[in-house]
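S1.2 Input.
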Amino acid sequence: MANIHDLRRDYNLGELKQEDLDENPINQFNAWLQTVIDSGVSDPTAMTIATVSPDGQPSQRIVLLKDVDDRGFVFYTNLGSRKATELRENNKISLHFPWHFMERQVKVCGQAQPLPATEVARYFFSRPKESQLAAWASKQSQPISTRQMLLSKFDEVKQKFSSGQIPVPKFWGGFRVIPHEIEFWQGGEHRLHNRFVYTLNKTEQDSPRWQIQRLMP
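S1.3 Output.
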């Protein structure tokens, strides 16, 4: 194995200046996301989400961002999964977009709110049939002894819904993460990285505004 403590490189692909930032972090995020999509990288919307168990144990996993606007960041999941279970107890959540190949990262902190059934259904019916069947077949995060058992369950639900529309499972849904903090990170030379954090000013209840602050790397 290589000496990993010797693995290092320079970060010099770009700069990030406060005067170049959009005053709305969602607009700034969408601009960066579009650049990632245009690059052709696989899974440009992949993000790590972190939740916390009732005993304080953090847990992370990668999911796909499925929508983003001024209301927040959207993802879908089995409502019996570990992340959904933990969010019911503590809806505080963190998202992380690791766009290393562009020397960029985005971190989002906020609260997760369940999506309404109409929005869940609209997305579910837009998915490929195989993905709809997989939602029925998998009791996400639950133990299973063999992969063959999972495949057998998939075949079972495939036969069950062989004709007609596949209904939305009651145990399947989504969350919208309403952010109060969004940080943008751009690699810089000599490890002098550029970090800017948008923080929602909650004191202005009628018209909350985002404040931008540069952070030390």
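S1.4 Remarks. The beta strands are 46-52, 58-64, 67-69, 72-78, 92-99, 104-114, 172-186, 194-201, 209-215.
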